[in-house]
């Protein structure tokens, strides 16, 4: 049996430290479970697409976690896939390279508890970048060689309610790249898809595949992407073995469910990066 902790959307920053205390509490709680691995499924930063310092700070912050860590980028780290939420925050080669130069990779594949855990860079899907084709080819090789059950991790969910959703939206993978990805997954023993990005927790089956949304460790959003989802902060503990998978949501004592609208002054600031600076204590990950 292997235990994997999935932490998502911590939104760390050396200049905007709203969620630093939550991060410290989550790291302590995750370490106490002594998992075999921790997956951090994106949005480690607030303004990573524009800032070397943010990406470096996030990488340093991961040192609070004792188990092996596999970090995947989100839209707040390397930019959105097009059309995205803002024209000037789309993923491009320099933003991707900033992440790679600090974290080493934007994807992973590892064996855990008789399963294969595969992590993808969701922000590449539909980007048209050459790195998207590289990732597709890599994924095909990984899927083709695994007879073990597969857990897939990525920042954005494949869809909100249904695989055939036609709307183009920044909340999930867009229809065309989603269809291509589902096509790739169809003949592989993929059992579980775990994503972040939506800052709420949900666990549903769709077409025989289990889709789990990991909550953020930082904040909840005013209106969850699914009214049936739980608006909580916390993380996931996932047990994988020959008998299947068990998913538990861990709500850490003392964690503050920051309200995004409240932090942004109920419309006074459009984005978190626009907020006045409020560095975390001592402004270092070790504080
Ligand atoms: Fe996020
Ligand atoms: Fe995100």
SSE topology sketch:
Layout: E1 2-7, H1 20-32, E2 37-41, H2 52-61, E3 69-72, H3 75-78, H4 93-103, E4 108-112, E5 115-119, H5 130-144, E6 150-154, H6 175-185, E7 190-195, E8 202-206, E9 209-213, E10 219-220, E11 235-241, E12 244-250, E13 258-259, H7 260-263
Parallel strand pairs: 1-2, 2-3, 5-6, 6-7, 7-9, 10-13
Antiparallel strand pairs: 1-11, 4-5, 8-9, 11-12
Keywords:
6-stranded mixed sheet; binds fe (ii) ion; 7 helices; alpha/beta; 287 residues
Which H/E pattern describes the elements?
Answer: EHEHEHHEEHEHEEEEEEEH
The number of E-state strands comes to 13
Shape: globular
Radius of gyration: 17 Å
Helix content: 10-25%
User: How many helical stretches?
Assistant: 7
> What ligands does this structure carry?
fe (ii) ion
Strand order, main sheet: write it out: 4-5-6-7-9-8
Task: Describe the main β-sheet briefly.
Answer: 6 strands, mixed
